[in-house]
UniProtKB/TrEMBL annotation:
A Pfam family assignment: CMD
InterPro entries named in the record: AhpD-like, AhpD_core, CMD-like
Every Carboxymuconolactone decarboxylase-like domain range: 27-99
Recorded superkingdom: Bacteria
Species the sequence originates in: Syntrophaceticus schinkii
One of the record's GO molecular function terms: peroxiredoxin activity
Protein name, entry field: Carboxymuconolactone decarboxylase-like domain-containing protein
Length: 126
C-alpha cells in the first residue's frame, strides 16, 4: 500500500475512534463540513482546490493527502492542483514549497502525476 493510501486509512480509522470517544464534537464537525459541501456558487471541485492550497499553507500533510484525493475525485487535474499550490507557495514561501512535495507524492500515489511521462522519462525520476 502506498503512503497516501496509508494516510487515508489512518484518517478514516482516526475519525472512527474520535467519533466513539467524542461523538458530540464529531457531530458538530460533520455539520460544519456538510454545510460547506452543499451546492453553492463555488463548485465542489474548486472548494477542494482551495482546501489543497490551505492544507499546504498550514503544513498539514494528512490534510494535503485527503484534499488532493477529494480534488481528483471531483475532476480536478494535476495541473489544477499544482496551480492551487502555486498560490500557497506565493503566500507561504519556502515552507509551502516543501509541503507541495507531499502534493506531488499524493498525485503520484493516486496515479495522476504525468509530468515525467510527458517528457519520456520515468515517474520515479523526481
Amino acid at each position: 500500500m502506498n503512503e497516501s493510501l496509508q494516510v487515508i486509512r489512518l484518517l478514516q480509522e482516526g475519525r472512527q475512534a474520535i467519533q466513539e470517544a467524542l461523538p458530540g464534537l464529531m457531530e458538530g464537525s460533520s455539520r460544519i463540513t456538510q454545510s460547506v459541501n452543499v451546492p453553492g456558487l463555488i463548485p465542489h471541485k474548486v472548494k477542494e482546490l482551495i482546501a489543497v492550497g490551505i492544507a499546504v499553507g498550514i503544513r498539514c500533510q494528512p490534510c494535503i493527502v485527503h484534499h488532493v484525493k477529494e480534488a481528483l475525485d471531483r475532476g480536478a487535474t494535476a495541473d489544477e492542483i499544482m496551480e492551487a499550490c502555486s498560490i500557497a507557495i506565493a503566500m507561504g514561501g519556502g515552507p509551502s514549497i516543501a509541503y507541495t512535495s507531499y502534493v506531488v507524492q499524493a498525485l503520484k500515489d493516486f496515479k495522476a502525476w504525468k509530468k515525467e511521462e510527458d517528457k519520456g522519462g520515468s515517474q520515479d525520476a523526481v
